[in-house]
Amino acid sequence: MDRSINIESKHLFRIVLGVLLSLVFFLRYHMMDPPLLLVFLLVIFSLMLRWRFSFSPAWMLIDASLLTMFSLFLPEATILLSLYLFYFASHRNLLFCIPFAVYLVVVLQGLELLVPLFSLLLGALVGVWELERMQLIKEADEYRMRTHHLEAETEHLLLDYAGAQYLSRLQEREQIAQILHDSLGHELTAAHLSVKALEMLLERGDVEKAKVSQGKIEQRLSSALAQLKLAVRQLEPDQKQVERSIARLFEEFVYPVQYTIRGDVALVPPALQQILHSAIKEALTNVAKHANPTKVSASLDCNSTLVQLTMENDGIMGQKSSSTGNGLRYLRRRVERLGGSMSIQKGEQFKLLISIPVRGVMGL
């Protein structure tokens, strides 16, 4: 992209300069003699030398000054100074144009005055166009750098997120194994030994002791079933604990927060709980940094299909800066990666709305 823009810039400069050269040659064609032709060729050589090598525009002052001295003895060559006006103006060196422009206005007469004016105007337009082009290239480079940075941050966050999920699954498996071992292992082992003892008693024909052993087996199995039910209840998420964790974020904030939590928070998957904590902490951090509110409100609605977080404050966060902070930009990308959406509304109040489908998180 940048390479094609550079080629177009060079082509535009050379095309306009070629047109001006043709115009000057046409105006002086009828009086072209060897001295004027020599000066004309020297000017062309001077310009072509600048095409091939990168010199400071200040060096062109020497050529323009020499041409001015030649024009004192060869007035027909004066109009060639228009080419230097175009060169200086296109390189945004307008101060270099002033002495030569004044000289041309004094020396030239009639319609020939339009040539230096036309050259100066075209040079200024090419210079402005080149300045805007460079600004666009700079903005494009900055945009690509920001995009690359955001993509790197997103990849890092996703890797952290995947790692956290993997560790969470390992911890859950370890917890399940520990609970099953502690609660069911003893009872099932005892029941298994009792079954073997029952077989031996029946082989010996000791029916009374066999009945006693059978009763103990039933007690062991009943106890194991009760322990299994207790283990299942322990593995189920504690809704109150999740709510207390979220509520603590609001209650410990520097400004009073009026918050409501509706729905069954236990339905929220652990992965989504992590996103909610990050979202709430990031939103509160931005309020503390960029707003001075008198009222902060928040609501969290949870159901089996959707989780929605809404936060508002009357401090109008973001008045000092029209751009969204890095934290909110990263948060938006994390939410969108989960199939959700995040919107920001600025009016009399600053409103942050986040919606994430539970099904999308469960499918990760």
Would you mind describing this structure in some detail?
The structure is a single chain. With 364 residues, the chain is an alpha+beta fold. It has 11 helices and 5 strands. It has a 5-stranded mixed sheet. A hairpin with a 3-residue loop joins strand 4 (341-346) and strand 5 (350-357). Helix 1 runs antiparallel to helix 6, helix 5 runs antiparallel to helix 6 and helix 9 (270-290) runs antiparallel to helix 10 (326-337). The protein starts with a helix and ends with a helix. The model is unreliable at 1-7 and 318-323 (pLDDT under 50).
Taking all Cα atoms into account, the compactness measure Rg is: 41 Å
Broad structural category: alpha+beta
Strand arrangement within the widest β-sheet reads 1-2-3-5-4
Strand content: 5-15%
State the total count of DSSP E strands.
5
